Amino acid sequence: MTAEVIDKQAVAASFSRAAATYDQVAELQRSVGSNLLARLPESLEVERLADLGCGTGYFTRALNARFGQPVLGLDIAEGMLRYARAQGPVSSSWIAADAEALPLRADSRQLLFSSLALQWCPDLSQALKEALRVLEPGGLIAFNTLVEGTLQELRDAWQAVDGYVHVNRFMPLAQLQQILADAGFARWRCEVETHVLHYPQLSGLTHELKALGAHNLNAGRPGGLTGRARLRALTAAYETFRQPAGLPATYQVAQIILHKGQQA
Ligand SMILES: C[S@@+](CC[C@H](N)C(=O)[O-])C[C@H]1O[C@@H](n2cnc3c(N)ncnc32)[C@H](O)[C@@H]1O
Prior knowledge:
Layout (H helix, E strand, L loop, with lengths): L7 H18 L1 H12 L10 E4 L5 H10 L3 E5 L2 H9 L5 E5 L12 E7 L8 H11 E12 L5 H10 L11 H9 L5 E13 L2 H11 L15 H12 L7 E13 L5
Parallel strand pairs: 1-2, 1-4, 2-3, 4-5
Antiparallel strand pairs: 5-7, 6-7
Helix pairs in contact: 1-4, 1-8, 6-9
The chain binds S-adenosylmethionine (SAM).
C-alpha cells in the first residue's frame, strides 16, 4: 500500500479486534502463506528465525514445526499477540513490534518470514532496510504481499457508486520490483500468484474482510455509515462482475525471497 495513507494505530486496533475471528475466515491467508513456506529452499536449516506480522501465530507454529526451533512472533497488534500466546504451548515468544523498527539486534536472525503483513507498512523500503539490518550475512527474508489488482472488483464497484477510496491501495508490481531491486540484497526473486475467490453475495466478502481486520484503513475513506441506497448501488455495481461460480474477488499475491549477501 502507499506511503502517506496508512494509520498504524488504526491498523493495530483493527487487527486486534479481529483476533478472535481471523482464523475462521483466513482460508486464502493459509493458502498463500503455505505457498510461501513451500518456496523456502528445501535444504534450509536455521536456528534463529522470526515471523513478522505473525497475527494469530499460525505460521509461527508452522515454522516451529518445520525447523524444530523457537520462533519469535512479532506483530503490531497486541490483540493478535494475546490470541497467539493463548493458543497453547509452543516454543515461541511473542513481541509487540513494528516491522519498520524492529527491536532486534543487527545480524541476529538467519530467516525472517512474513505472510500478508508488509502490505500494511506505510514504507516497505524501510521494512526491508530493517530486515537487511537484522539478518545475518547469508540470511534470507521470505515474504508475500498484495499488489495492484487486488480487490479490483470492489474498488471498481465503489468507484461507480461514489468515487471514494473504499478499498486499500496496493502498489503496482513494477513499483514493488523497483523497491526490491533497490533494497540492498544480494539476490531476489518475486513471483505473482493470482487467486480468485467467489461469493454467493457481496455481504460474504464484506463480512469476511471485517472478520480478517482487513477492511479499508486508507485515508480518503468516507466516514459515517453506509447508507442503504449506497449499499444497493454497490451491490448492483458488483453484480456486473458475477461469474457462474459467484461474485469474484481477485487477489494478486507477490511471493518474494531476498538473500542478504555474505559481505553485507
Ligand atoms: C493479514 S494478517 C496476517 C497474519 C499472519 N501472518 C497470517 O498469515 O495469518 C496481517 C498482520 O500484520 C500485522 N501488521 C500490520 N502492520 C504491521 C507492522 N507495521 N508491523 C508488524 N505487524 C504488522 C497485523 O497486525 C496483522 O496481524
